[in-house]
Amino acid sequence: MHVLHFITRLILGGAQENTLLTCEGQHAAGDRVTLVTGPGLGREGSLMERAEAAGFEVIELPGLVRNLRPWADAAAMRRFAGLVGELRPDLVHTHSGKAGVLGRAGAEKAGVPAIHTVHGPSFHRFQNPVSRAAFRAAERWAGPKTAHFISVADAMTDQYVAAGIAPRERFTTIRSGMHVEPFLHPPRPRETVRGELGFAPTDVVAAKVARLSDLKGQRFLVDAAALLKDRAPHLRYLLIGDGPLREGLERRIAAAGLTDRFVFTGLVPTDRIPELLHASDLVVHASLREGLPRVLPQGLIAGKPVVAFDADGAKEVCLTGETGFLIPPRDVPALAEALAALAADPALRERLGAEGRRRFTDPFRHTTMVRQIRALSADVVAGRRGAAVGTGEPPAANPLPN
Question: Transferase among the record's keywords (predicted)?
Answer without folding.
Answer: yes
